[in-house]
User: Which sequence fits this backbone?
């Protein structure tokens, strides 16, 4: 088991190193001068040269990368060209909002997917199976911003039950934070639930076709007992794996939802950095999202190996 853990940790670190190289290279392939853009109408040649030297952009790109990576290893991701704020501080201010939304969306997706996928598998070929498959197909086909706009129209504009946008920290006002969380969490959760429904259904169907399940049924065991103790126990492993990957995807892929609901998370921060060509912020945001995704992926693999020791032995 220890060898498996070390191998997976090493693979994750190599992947993160590769991400850092790609992100840094792509940022420098984008046309335009970020410092000149940041100065805008206040451009002054002397100030420009000072900022250029301070940011290290006057150095060769390999040296810039080594300096940036060395600083990143100790938590220093540079300073924003636009605000002068340390990038690490800006990321830590936005990370809790994105993490809260991602976890809430995953919970909504699981609440939708587990009953829908299990019932669809158990009632294969019946109307409820077609309904669940139809939901999954629509859920993954319709853009999430459309769900968001529809929910805002119905629950915020017409019914007036929930606020249409904005973020409130649960530490400041838990009730208002919950009210503002519902619509974006449901928006992202519907898509996640549609994806997970397919995996739950296929996983349960595969477990139901196992020899020991057929043997249990042949012995006359109740269907509910067979489902709980023989089918679901074996179906949980791939479901847990896909759920963990979905959480990582949500952390880095809910930019549109954050924009629609004016949610002050990492997605909006990265999008603003793209528009303003704020390279340090964009590089830091992408590196943080990639790191969190790899960490979640690593934890999922470790849980997978714990549940199925054959994985660690392979």
Assistant:
């Amino acid at each position: 088991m220890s060898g498996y853990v070390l191998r997976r940790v090493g693979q994750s670190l190599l992947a993160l190193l590769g991400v850092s190289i790609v992100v840094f290279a792509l940022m420098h392939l984008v046309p335009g001068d970020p410092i000149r853009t940041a100065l805008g109408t206040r451009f002054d040649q002397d100030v420009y040269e000072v900022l250029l030297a301070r940011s290290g952009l006057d150095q060769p790109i390999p040296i810039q990368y080594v300096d940036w990576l060395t600083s990143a290893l100790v938590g220093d991701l540079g300073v924003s060209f636009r605000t002068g704020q340390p990038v690490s501080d800006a990321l830590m201010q936005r990370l809790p909002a994105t993490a809260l939304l991602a976890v809430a969306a995953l919970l909504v997706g699981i609440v939708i997917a587990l009953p829908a996928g299990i019932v669809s598998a158990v009632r294969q070929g019946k109307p409820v199976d077609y309904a669940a498959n139809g939901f999954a197909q629509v859920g993954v086909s319709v853009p999430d911003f459309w769900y968001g706009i529809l929910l805002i129209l119905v629950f915020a504009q017409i019914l007036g039950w929930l606020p249409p946008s904005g973020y409130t920290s649960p530490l400041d006002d838990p009730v208002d934070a919950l009210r503002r969380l519902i619509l974006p969490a449901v928006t992202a959760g519907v898509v996640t639930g549609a994806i997970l429904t397919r995996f739950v259904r296929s996983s349960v169907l595969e477990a139901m076709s196992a020899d020991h399940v057929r043997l249990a049924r042949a012995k006359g065991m109740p269907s509910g007992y067979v489902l709980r103790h023989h089918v679901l126990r074996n179906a949980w492993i791939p479901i847990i794996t896909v759920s963990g990957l979905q959480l990582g995807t949500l952390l880095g892929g809910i930019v549109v939802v954050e924009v629609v609901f004016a949610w002050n998370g990492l997605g909006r921060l990265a999008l603003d950095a793209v528009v303003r060509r704020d390279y340090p912020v964009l590089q830091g945001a992408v590196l943080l999202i990639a790191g969190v995704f790899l960490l979640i992926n690593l934890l999922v693999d470790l849980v997978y190996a714990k549940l199925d020791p054959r994985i660690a032995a392979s």
In short: The radius of gyration is 24 Å. The mean pLDDT is 82. The longest helix spans residues 87-122. The chain is about 80% helix and 0% strand.
